[in-house]
Design brief:
14% strand, 39S ribosomal protein L22, mitochondrial, alpha+beta, elongated, 10 helices, two-stranded antiparallel ribbon, three-stranded antiparallel sheet
Amino acid sequence: MASMAALNPYGHLIRSARTGVTYLPRRTLTYTVPRFAQEDGSNGSNNQSDSPQPKGGALSSIKNFFFGGKSAAEKPKITRRANAPLKREGSLSADSIFAEDEASPKLIASGRTPSRRTAAQPTEGEEEAEYTYAVDGRNRETMQTALDPRPNARVRWERKMVIREVRRRGRISKTEQILRTERESTSKSHWFKTSVKKLGPLARQIAGKNIDEAMLQMRFSKKKAAKDVLEHLQHAKNVAVVRSGMGLGAASSKEVTITLKSGQRKTITDPTAIYIEQAWVNRGPYGYDYDHRARGQINMLRPPYTSLSVVLKEEKTRIREWQVREAESQRKRKTQLWTQLPDRKISAQNQYYSW
């Protein structure tokens, strides 16, 4: 007992003081707005007065803790954190393509349109110097690694193109002429949940037909995949019209009757009408499905996926191909015609050998 009293001489005082104190549960963890203490004093020094504060002993600190003793020091003031500075917005560079030479009023409340910055003019008494901005003063040598990574290859390619142009004397090849004068659009569909064996007949059915006629065929087809093919044909037609400008001509009074590769005769009134030149099927991935059978058995199914690709062209392409075929067939017929031999005397004819 003597040793315990020596270790805690104020034990009886603490036990007597805690009898009138109510127990408060510990607070849970909550989020509070961060506050910062602002202490009085000059030059940001701590809250210290000129006169020294008396220091209490252990008994006075315990007494203040249980009986609400007040400290002589003034409590620090609590203030909220200042608002963040306003965001600074950047501006366009001097060589930006979105800038305008002259600023013009805009129809929105944000202000006027961005304009190109002009170089500052030197004042009087100041020597003329080159006023440039940091954006304009770019290092071209550093940028050449991205703009011209292989200068030797570029020079060789330019030399090759010049030689080719000189040899052709400005004439373009037949393939280049066709690409410049005729339009074409290729479109591939997404994956249909069907097989190549089921989608192949539909692709052969629409190949060679006018785009509108092919869409009509798919609209009244009884095949399950015909609905997906119809949606893809509509999408392919829209892409051809918007991106390539196909099918925007008007029907002419002059009709052209041609013979197709299959031998069928066709009359064309609009040379810009769109038709399906090619249609083929692409084999895709295999999915996973389950077949629930009797006695709790489940079989794994691997349903195939297939896509459809179409090449759309205009009727003028079919007219050109027919003209090429007709010219080729006519040339072959002319080479096979029998020609009369010249009327001349036959000499040096002997029934025996001359040796």
